[in-house]
Amino acid sequence: MLQVESVDVRFGGVQALADVSLCVDSGSLVGLIGPNGAGKTTLFNVITGLEMPARGRVVLDGRDVTRLPPHRRARLGLGRTFQRIEVFSSLSVRDNVLAAAEARRSWGHDEPDPARTATDVLERVGLADLAGERVDGLSTGLLRLVEVARALASRPSLLLLDEPGSGLDGTESEALGTLLLDLVSDGVAILLVEHDVELVMRVCQQLHVLDFGRVIASGTPSQVRQNAAVQAAYLGADAGVVHA
Amino acid sequence: MTTFLALTLVGLVVGCIYALTACGLVVTYTTSGVFNFAHGAIGMVAAFTYWQLSVGWGLPVWLSLLLVLLVMAPLMGALVERVLVRPLYGAPIGVTLVVTLGLLISLIGLANLAWPPTTTRVLPKFFAGRTVTLASLVVSYNEILVIVTAALVAVTLRSFFTRTRTGIAMRAVVDDQELAALAGTNPQRVAQLSWALGATLAALAGVLLAPLVTLDILGLTLLVINGYAAAMVGRLRHLPATVSGALALGLLDSWLIGYAPGGVVNVLKPALPMFLLFGAVLFLKQERLRAGSLAGVRMPRTPSFRRSVGSAAAFVVAAWVVSGQLSAANLATGGQGLVLAFIMLSLVLLSGYGGQVSLCQLTFVGLGAFAMGKIGGGSPLGLLGAIALPAATGALIALTVVRLRGLYLALATLAFAQAMDVIFFSRALGYGGNLEVARPSLPGIDLGNDRTYFVLLAVVFAVGAVGVLALRRRAFGRRLVALNDSPAACATMGVSVATTKLIVLTASAGLAGLGGALFGGLHGSVSPNDFVLLNSLLLLLLATLGGLYTVSGAFLAAMFYALFPVLQNRYPGLGQVSYLLTGLGALSLGRNRYGMGGQLADLGERLRAWRLPAGQQAEVLHAAG
Questions:
Q1: What is this model's ipTM?
Q2: Which domains does chain B have, with CATH numbers?
Q3: Is there a contact between B497 and A71 if contact means CB atoms under 8 Å apart?
Q4: Of A51, A198, B361, B494, which sits 20 to 30 A from B268 (CA to CA)?
Q5: Is residue A226 predicted with pLDDT exceeding 50?
């Protein structure tokens, strides 16, 4: 589904990503964890086309998309949410989602009824009651759900989620986990960046750990938990998290 | 050979002055992220103040220079940064632009009050009359002074930015404000300093330029467009490239005058900065869409279709009733207001919904009137041309700049408007004369009757308003607003940002063009003065003041704008005051971004809330903020 091959990104003198490779198979849920500043969001930007890598390739469904602009990649079935929230703040919750469904109608050929799609998606993520609200009054946790709903409205086959669980309480985060598993069983592939280790351990089949722009460990959640390098990377910043 | 040398010298001198002003622009823009459209106006005010001190009051030249360059200009720059610019950090381009344009208009208004254009003012050249002959070339001391000053400034700036602690701090702020703050630099102090420095460079350019040209308020202010073009060559960042751009512009300008045949010079010379600017823009790389959207703008609620149709019908009936009571002169003023309101709808679409800024909206209006006048006879074909010609022009401009940030569209349209003023309208509409524009013809209705035409204009505005509101409620409207809120998120859901911008700019230009045809019909003819750049700026400012997000705001602003000339005729002193007030009003937008229309919409929501039961009341009020 997605292959990232030896991607390098530099910001001035800082190596944000160094030789990062990973892949996400269709219908799988892969976690991407690492301390703040490890390069997780930068990697998302590279995959979605908001950032150009200095070296390396991004392959989507066997097609090299490294030079494609973001909207062309989206049309190949790539959706994402943002860590620093990017909702359309002048639109209502429903219109945020509707705009995405309408966008899909303008380039896809299988979106007969955007309004219906918006309603369904809002129902699915549990925002149906808030559909008419302006988004600027919502809590951070709810805004993240709006972003998830908006991404779903364009029916992605690969979904990149950047910390969708932060700002959610225990119950909400559990509901999110269930939603993600649901999506995967529908055949959507997901790459998940998340600090909520409980959620990550529960839903991910595979994990990659980034630190200082490098992949320092990959494997199943339990393999990664045992990994010495991972424990060292987290010790300074976030020692408690790994033991959670 | 001597001619060549002489032309080169003149070009070099002018290029040096452009370089000074352009460097000032780059310094302020990079450290504060706010592009100062009033940069040229600051130079203009400095030149006039210098005239006042040295010629008007007879102070010694050195003292006048000292006061202008080392006291007035830096203070002015620092004050502008503190009061106007600081609240704008992180604000959308539309807001920063309107505020600095407001400053530009205010300064022009102020200068017109302080130095009425009825008097001719001349500044003597420095070391007047003294020359030196270098290899058969006569060089004036004034020319030497300009070149030496520019060279000194270049060297000083260079060592300032590489050697001094403050200069290095400035560059750090350019690269990353937050990081620089962490390293103990105070970014606001640095920005303030850079605005003081920028204003000083603007003043220096103004003082050096003024003796070479006539001391003309508008002329001096707009010469800065050359500076913009040069800064664009430096991608608004690099000083050496900016200087090269400025010198190239000065030299080309001078050689063109010397060698090209007269006809070509008249056309090409005024267009030179525009060509350079567009040329530089073409070479700019596609910018990546940054995530991290700006503080969202809370838009007033859009009325439902039924409601807007109801209001529109009521509006037309009211216009019909009122028109019966109006004198011929008032019918003309009211009609002017209606046409302007229709034209402002094109700004509601483009800037209000789409967040794009065009500074040449009246140029599109003029193109519309031109097409109607030429193809004319009031035929449907004329109307079609009035829409198609500006729309195609808008599309062409959009094609060159849609890849880039909103600022580039503003700069490109500014240069385009200025060039069209000088090259096109003055010729195409007849030398200083008028192009006749017929009213459209409708079967069975006599539009030659002023009252009937007034009602037609009301109908056209009402239909346009309903149409714009309907668009806002539909898919394309949502996409526009979404694009304004977060281009990055739009792109990642498959929306082509560039295509959407292209469509809305084209549509807006077409709408403005149609307004132009109606404008021409209202007056029977159009003249070049109707479409000058300054009026485009005023139109945008007033539309923003009225509230770009609402149709009612556009209407209020247009009526106000239409009353301008009437007030000016009745109370001659008031004309400049209204400029000043508009400018000052625009300055206030840094704090309140919704304008009068936004306030009205807010008031409406509050009133509606009163009629609801208590529970819902709280909800609506919460939503209304």
A1: 0.91
A2: 2-115+135-283 (1.10.3470), 305-543 (no CATH)
A3: yes
A4: B361
A5: yes
